[in-house]
Amino acid sequence: MQEPQSGPDRRMFLRATAVTGAALTLGGLSAQTASAAPGGFPDYTYVRTLLTPSQLKYNPTGEIIFPTVRGVYDKLASPLGRYYLYYAPHDAPGGICLAYGNSLEGPFTEYPANPIVSNKWSPHYSVSHVSSPHVLWKEDVKEFWLYFHGENTTTRLARSEDGVHFTYDKVVLSTSMMPSGTTETSYARVFRHELPSRRAHYVMLFMLNNTTNHRDICWGWSADGRNWTFDQTPLVRHSDVGAVNVGGPHLLTRNGSAYVVYNKDKESGGDLMITEVGADFSLRRHLGVFYNSRSGPPENGRSAAPSFGTDHGVPYMIFEAGERLQGSIAVARG
């Protein structure tokens, strides 16, 4: 599984043929009807709901958020399935959960011993909740690195060889590392991304809240994924895109540039937005709506916290669908 990257894809081909007026059809789709999201990314279309809280054995709060999907078929000798899908309830007690399946379109089977990480992990912490799992495959050490928050002030790291059983590592981000008045540093995702000028190989995107109670997207960089330096000013401010709050950021790259996809709160439209930040994160080009949330179920006007992957050459987006703390996990196809 890979994130959408640069290079030709079906939709780019269709757009090109539409421009030339060619009456070509690919897979039954007319060239004249094709479109693409900003930045040349696929235009994702909802396919189905993958996980619904009421159908899960571990369901302490009736809500789940923040999916992360990882292909494990090329990393593990005997995986539970080709893909591991991590998610969590947010409200106390939360709990990092796992589901597995053989296709990004599902079905996914709930791991029977969820949660795989709980809100109490002696002697490391005891908090009201843990949530927002993001899993990175650390190629150099052949490990799955899990970043998660609990409380909302603290992002932690745990490590695993099999993607199921984790060993606690350390705190990697807290409000104390950001400007005075910061009240939340959470919903972090970490990506391999080269920043030669900073001698960094990884970037972290996360949501920051402060005493103004408006949430922005911030970022940091690291040589090893464990020890971080954080920019003290937001990468994307809520006011930059006419929102009350922005969050759930994900990094995508294409044609030598980097982009951040993130969600607006429902009061600000509930759509997924995209901003080009450039390969070195010096650019701020707000490109508008990346994914338009449908008014009907399961989205009900809100999509959030996207995770991306490719299955047999087809791009997919797995995301929160529905009102905050009332939604499910859904999949869209590009």
Automatic annotation (TrEMBL):
Does the record bear Cell inner membrane in its keywords?
no
User: Is the keyword RNA-binding assigned to this protein?
Assistant: no
SUPFAM superfamilies associated with the record: Arabinanase/levansucrase/invertase (SSF75005)
In terms of Gene3D superfamilies, this protein maps to: Glycosyl hydrolase domain, family 43
Span of the secretion signal?
Answer: 1-36
Q: Which UniProt keywords apply?
A: Signal
Write down the InterPro entries for this protein, in alphabetical order: Glyco_hydro_beta-prop_sf, TAT_signal
Stated name of the protein: Secreted protein
Q: Give the species.
A: Streptomyces iranensis
